[in-house]
Specification:
Layout lengths: L12 H6 L27 H8 L3 E2 L1 H7 L3 H5 L8 E7 L5 H12 L7 E4 L13 H20 L4 E7 L10 H13 L5 E4 L3 E2 L6 H5 L3 H9 L2 E5 L22 E2 L7 E10 L5 E7 L10 E7 L8 H4 L2 E4 L2 E4 L5 E5 L14 E4 L2 H19 L7 H11 L15 E2 L8 E5 L5 E4 L16 E2 L1 H15 L2
Parallel strand pairs: 1-14, 2-4, 2-5, 3-4, 5-7, 7-9, 9-13
Antiparallel strand pairs: 6-8, 9-10, 11-12, 14-15, 16-19, 17-18
């Protein structure tokens, strides 16, 4: 379903945690935390969220600490000279103001530039009573603000498209047009896509394959492509946007071999960003990181080393970053009906793999700066680093800390129980994390101070 990393509602937590008959899927149209957890006048602390909402929440300083970005920033590695491209249906009418307010509130510098384009046609006027447009505005705000957290020196370009991406083909022709325009005009270096459609919702594989033109164009121009892997674990939405498939599926574009699929982890941090436990696969009763095997794409060469896990199919995700609702991040918005633009409102909480993809886009922008060139398709170098980090089989005990890869060995992507409109309740069996590569977390997560220079160096070897 559109807006991967969909913002998840704590209001359903009790029903989902109970797992009783009649429990609904954990995603709701607004994809936000409950009303009492939003529209705060300042970014909350983790202690505040635990005391008031029963979940962890994190500010930028905590994830900067947790992902070891501080040493990079201290040495001037912050994505400067690189441009992150964000693609979202409709966009947000207040994004420029909101990014400035976010930066002031969390102590970040403004980006060198934020530019907004509508190359696929004019976007309809924003309607605050249209749940779909409001949902995309939340998505846009998350994408822009949190890509900036992970690369505060990078330029940001927002591509707004005039048709909502839902399931199947809908919305993708406009996305292809917008991305091709940006690539042809040399607009940016890494594109982050926090959306996707279940492969089975396309009329046939040819309909999906016919939408790959922008990805092939990006590959020719050395532009890195990232996509969020989804928020419903081993399943995903059917074409009616209400039911979840009762068997394992995955979504496109994260399943595309020209794209790096970014999955989700759950971090447990204190107020200062110190880890209290190892990261685990995101599956917290509110949602779970998307994972699985493509039914459209065969195993790409870069996954040959993990053929014992993926078989003959493309496996998703490739890598994972923070995405959990129990670990939601703060963001600032003023487009909602109760919001204002006077600087007093509103700090909200948000989560999902839509958070993970722009975070990793910032990491790629940082690595672009180190490499002094675009990294292009990073899947070959990423799996090359994994072979160094996990040298025995598809992943044994972790070695090679210089790679910056951090193994995620706990958690799974099993999703359910959920009840579809047929009245039946289902649980879709996912995959468990383990040592090294797995279909729950990909090659794991990162220590940015080590990973950024390692990725830059590896990309120079693989993408000559």
């Amino acid at each position: 379903m559109a807006r991967f990393g969909l913002l998840l509602a704590v209001a359903l937590a009790a029903a989902v945690a109970a797992g009783g008959a009649g429990a609904a899927p954990t995603l709701v149209p607004q994809h936000r935390l409950p009303a009492e957890a939003v529209h705060l006048k300042s970014p909350p602390t983790t202690s505040f969220c635990l005391a008031n909402y029963g979940i962890h929440c994190y500010r930028p300083s905590q994830l900067i600490k947790a992902y070891d970005l501080g040493p990079l920033y201290a040495s001037g590695i912050d994505g400067r000279g690189s441009t992150i491209v964000i693609v979202d249906s409709f966009g947000s009418p207040t994004i420029a103001h909101d990014l400035r307010a976010f930066d002031r509130g969390v102590g970040l510098p403004d980006p060198p530039s934020l530019k907004v384009f509508q190359p696929a046609g004019p976007v309809p006027p924003f309607d605050p009573n249209n749940d779909d447009m409001v949902g995309w505005a939340y998505e846009t705000t998350l994408d822009v603000e949190w890509s900036h957290v992970f690369a505060p020196g990078a330029n940001i370009v927002l591509l707004e498209t005039p048709v909502s991406e839902t399931e199947g083909v809908t919305g993708f022709p406009e996305i292809v047009t917008a991305e091709n325009w940006a690539i042809d005009h040399n607009i940016g270096d890494v594109i982050s896509m926090s959306f996707g459609a279940t492969e089975q919702t396309f009329p046939n594989p040819g309909a999906l394959l016919g939408l790959r033109g922008a990805f092939q164009n990006a590959n020719r121009h050395g532009v890195t492509l990232l996509a969020a892997s989804g928020d419903t674990g081993a399943t995903d939405y059917e074409l009616n946007l209400q039911d979840l498939y009762p068997f394992p599926v995955t979504s496109w574009p994260p399943s595309d071999p020209l794209v790096t699929g970014v999955g989700g982890t759950m971090l447990t941090l204190d107020d200062n960003g110190n880890r209290l436990a190892p990261d685990v696969v995101w599956n917290d009763g509110f949602g779970a990181g998307g994972s699985g095997l493509s039914t459209v794409f065969n195993r790409p060469d870069f996954q040959d080393g993990v053929r014992s896990i993926v078989g003959h199919q493309r496996g998703v995700p490739d890598i994972s970053m923070s995405a959990a609702v129990d670990g939601a991040v703060v963001y600032y918005e003023s487009f909602a009906p109760t919001g204002t633009i006077d600087g007093t409102c509103c700090w909200d909480l948000i989560a999902g793999t839509s958070e993970a993809s722009p975070e990793f886009a910032g990491i790629v922008a940082d690595a672009n700066q180190v490499a002094r060139h675009r990294l292009g398709n990073i899947n070959d170098p990423l799996y090359g680093l994994a072979a160094l980090a996990y040298p025995t089989g598809p992943f044994s005990a972790s070695h090679g800390k210089a790679t910056g890869l951090v193994d995620v060995t706990q958690g799974d992507t099993t999703f359910g129980p959920f009840t579809n409109t047929d009245g039946n309740t289902y649980t879709v069996q996912g995959t468990a994390a383990g040592p090294g590569y797995d279909l729950a977390s990909g090659v794991g997560t990162i220590d940015a101070a080590r990973f950024v220079p390692a990725l830059a160096a590896a990309s120079g070897l693989f993408n000559r």
